[in-house]
Amino acid sequence: MGNTNSLCGRKGFYNKETLLSSVGNNSSHDGIRTIEAVKSCSFSRKSDLCIRIITWNMNGKVSYEDLVQLVGKDRKFDLLVVGVQEAPKTNVAQLLQTASSPTHVLLGKAKLQSIQLLLFGPKNSQPLVKELKAESQSVGGCGGLIGRKKGAVAIRINYDDIKIVFISCHLSADANKVDQRNEELRRISNSLISKDKRTHDLIVWLGDLNYRIQDVSNRPARSLIQNHLQSVLVRKDQLLQEAERGEIFKGYNEGTLGFKPTYKYNVGSSNYDTSHKVRVPAWTDRILYKIQDTKNIQTTLYSYDSIDQVNGSDHKPVKADLCLKWINS
């Protein structure tokens, strides 16, 4: 990848020292609070509800082996939430149900062409579901062969008296479409959250949000990642920049971006894009959450990471393990 220090002075190129100084020690943002995941233990039985959340842009393909890796063998969570984008026409819900059995069953699903949201709960957990509703909001896109329309799908659920809304979305691509992505988020939020007069204890956004690394070119970005210094690039993340400006996700939380950028990979490998486009790696795939009832509900983020062993797409899946506890129970 070469020495990044030799790239000083050229527009769009930064040396390591310049990028390091731009990050600083600030781990929180006006719009997004960065949460360090507690990795010392897995799901706690002292929690009232534990949720595994996964987002993955499938690039129009799927294999059962990838879905088995996606779900994992550790099934101590209560709810399993899987949001997929660019899903193939294959019945992904049925394949995931097989992969997650016998511990979990499909409770609900929402779909907008290739954008899907699937919600699984423990076997025999249906009596705990007091409300479940699926919705969608399109924000553009022509569909194409696999229906790659941009927009979002949502599932509202009252599970064991905890009211949650999950929103899985796929926003416009390209590094220069920041304002368009911001507007799409506002439109989705207005349609799926703001117009709803019901209160929610927890709101979770997941999906291919498509925000990129701002003003950093390919060679220095890849060199930093290769040397396990990808944290240097976090300050250049468009999503965090827009949150700092107060444009999006005010009051939301996200785990630390300690994993490598999840896009764009050569399909079938863990090597970054070598096509003629040679995309700059970016954290396009994200999971954010917001507790509305902070006086009564406490949350612990147990993990926030990519699933690097899944190679079937040009994106790596991202997962978060989140546990909730009633403070005054």
UniProtKB/TrEMBL annotation:
Q: Name one GO biological process term.
A: response to auxin
- UniProt cross-references to InterPro entries, sorted A to Z: Endo/exonu/phosph_ase_sf (IPR036691), IP5 (IPR046985), IPPc (IPR000300)
Q: Which GO terms describe its cellular component?
A: plasma membrane
Residue span(s) of domain Inositol polyphosphate-related phosphatase:
47-328
- MF terms in GO: phosphatidylinositol-3,4,5-trisphosphate 5-phosphatase activity; phosphatidylinositol-3,5-bisphosphate 5-phosphatase activity; phosphatidylinositol-4,5-bisphosphate 5-phosphatase activity
- Superkingdom is Eukaryota
Q: Which family does it belong to?
A: Belongs to the inositol polyphosphate 5-phosphatase family.
Protein name, UniProt field: Inositol polyphosphate-related phosphatase domain-containing protein
Species this protein is from: Brassica oleracea var. oleracea
